[in-house]
């Protein structure tokens, strides 16, 4: 199985969760973890991951925060399974609130600044309702200090098909106990891929 980890905003391929996944995969010969750098405009980031999805076989996604938002859009397009960690629901709104008018464009890296046009792109990219809901495992923590977990609960449980949602009390946006959840997350993704084959 090829697992693509989509890091969050202001993060990198060297994020703690990405590295925990990679170390876990290093112990196994049936698993490869890909850690693309997504510090670029949203359309470019999604295109980069889309290319990976098309190039690889038995693909699954794990996305954190903004990476969870990207994963949701890619699942809708490609039908691959995904695990979402405290996914961002309306990142364009979140960033407008966080950075207010004065701070946009916001320099994220030396090469990339987030601006209003990119926030509009995020908004246009968002699928109005969940696609392939049964291929999504959503991991939430009520102690998330950045996002309201209830928004994700509503979005991923609306409609005929509901995603598998696990909400924990306490915790935080980084989900510091993610390492404990890796075996379960990978089992879910693997089962989804097997079901897809039959």
List keywords for this structure.
198 residues, alpha/beta, Rossmann fold, 6-stranded parallel β-sheet, 7 helices, 43% helix, globular
Would you spell out the secondary-structure blueprint of this structure?
Layout: E1 2-6, H1 16-26, E2 32-34, H2 42-55, E3 59-64, H3 66-78, E4 82-85, H4 91-99, E5 106-107, E6 113-114, H5 116-125, E7 136-141, H6 149-157, E8 164-168, H7 178-197
Parallel strand pairs: 1-2, 1-3, 3-4, 4-7, 7-8
Antiparallel strand pairs: 5-6
Helix pairs in contact: 2-3, 4-5
Describe the structure.
Helix 6 (149-157) links the parallel strand 7 (136-141) and strand 8 (164-168). This protein has one domain (2-197): 3-Layer(aba) Sandwich (Rossmann fold). The two termini are 16 Å apart. By secondary structure, the protein is an alpha/beta fold. The chain has seven helices and eight strands, in the order βαβαβαβαββαβαβα.
Concise synopsis of the structure shown:
The chain has 198 residues and is α/β, with parallel strands linked by helices. The chain has seven helices and eight strands; from the N terminus they run βαβαβαβαββαβαβα. The chain has one domain (2-197): Alpha/Beta hydrolase fold, catalytic domain (Rossmann fold, 3-Layer(aba) Sandwich).
CATH topology-level name? Rossmann fold
Number of strands: 8
Order of helices and strands: EHEHEHEHEEHEHEH
Helical element count?
Answer: 7
Write the CATH architecture name: 3-Layer(aba) Sandwich
Query: What distance lies between the first and last C-alpha atoms, to the nearest angstrom?
Result: 16 Å
Poorly predicted runs are none
């Amino acid at each position: 199985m090829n697992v693509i980890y989509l890091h969050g905003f202001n993060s990198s391929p060297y994020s703690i969760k990405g590295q925990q996944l990679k170390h876990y995969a290093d112990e196994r010969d049936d698993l490869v973890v890909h850690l693309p750098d997504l510090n670029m405009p949203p359309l470019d980031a999604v295109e980069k991951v889309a290319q990976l999805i098309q190039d690889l076989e038995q693909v699954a996604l794990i996305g954190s925060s903004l990476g969870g938002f990207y994963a949701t859009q890619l699942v809708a397009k490609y039908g691959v399974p995904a695990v979402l960690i405290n996914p961002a629901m309306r990142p364009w709104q979140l960033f407008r609130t966080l950075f207010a008018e004065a701070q946009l464009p916001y320099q994220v890296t030396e090469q990339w600044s987030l601006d209003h046009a990119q926030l509009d792109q995020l908004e246009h990219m968002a699928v109005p309702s969940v696609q392939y809901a049964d291929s999504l495992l959503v991991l939430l923590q009520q102690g998330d200090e950045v996002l309201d977990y209830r928004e994700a609960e509503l979005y991923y449980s609306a409609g005929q098909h509901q995603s598998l949602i696990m909400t924990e009390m306490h915790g935080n946006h980084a989900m510091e106990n993610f390492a404990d959840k890796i075996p379960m997350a990978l089992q879910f993704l693997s089962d989804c891929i097997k079901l897809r084959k039959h």
